[in-house]
């Protein structure tokens, strides 16, 4: 019977990935000890390595810095959209006043 899909916090994923990257533990050993699948742990390790080099990685960010970068990027996108809307509105009202 297949396992029920579990979800883990970013902090937990980062901690498990650090066991492999920083502590030098084997992925298979960490998976066995934590009752996790190897594919998931390898993905978390790859993401941690990518985030440490400044790349966004795939999926939800693990490190606090990457989470903050993603939040700021989303906020910046919203500001740019608002700015474009205001440009269009000001051009529309400028034509109305003539």
From TrEMBL:
Organism encoding this protein = Thioalkalivibrio versutus
SUPFAM superfamilies (UniProt xref): Homeodomain-like
Question: Which keywords annotate this record?
Answer: Coiled coil
Q: What is this protein called?
A: Transposase
Signal peptide stretch: none
Q: Which Pfam families match?
A: HTH_Tnp_1
Gene Ontology molecular function, alphabetical: DNA binding; transposase activity
Is Coiled coil there in the keyword field?
A: yes
**What does the record list as GO biological process?**
DNA transposition
As recorded in UniProt, coiled-coil segments are 62-89
Query: Family per UniProt?
Result: Belongs to the transposase 8 family.
Q: Does the keyword Methyltransferase apply?
A: no
């Amino acid at each position: 019977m297949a396992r029920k899909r579990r979800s883990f916090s970013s902090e937990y994923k980062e901690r498990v990935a650090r066991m492999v990257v920083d502590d030098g533990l084997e992925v298979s050993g960490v998976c066995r000890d934590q009752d996790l699948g190897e594919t998931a742990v390898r993905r978390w390790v790859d993401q941690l390595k990518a985030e440490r080099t400044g790349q966004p990685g795939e999926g939800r960010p693990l490190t606090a810095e990457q989470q903050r970068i993603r939040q700021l990027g989303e906020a910046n996108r919203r500001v740019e959209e608002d700015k474009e809307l205001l440009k269009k509105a000001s051009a529309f009202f400028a034509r109305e006043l003539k």
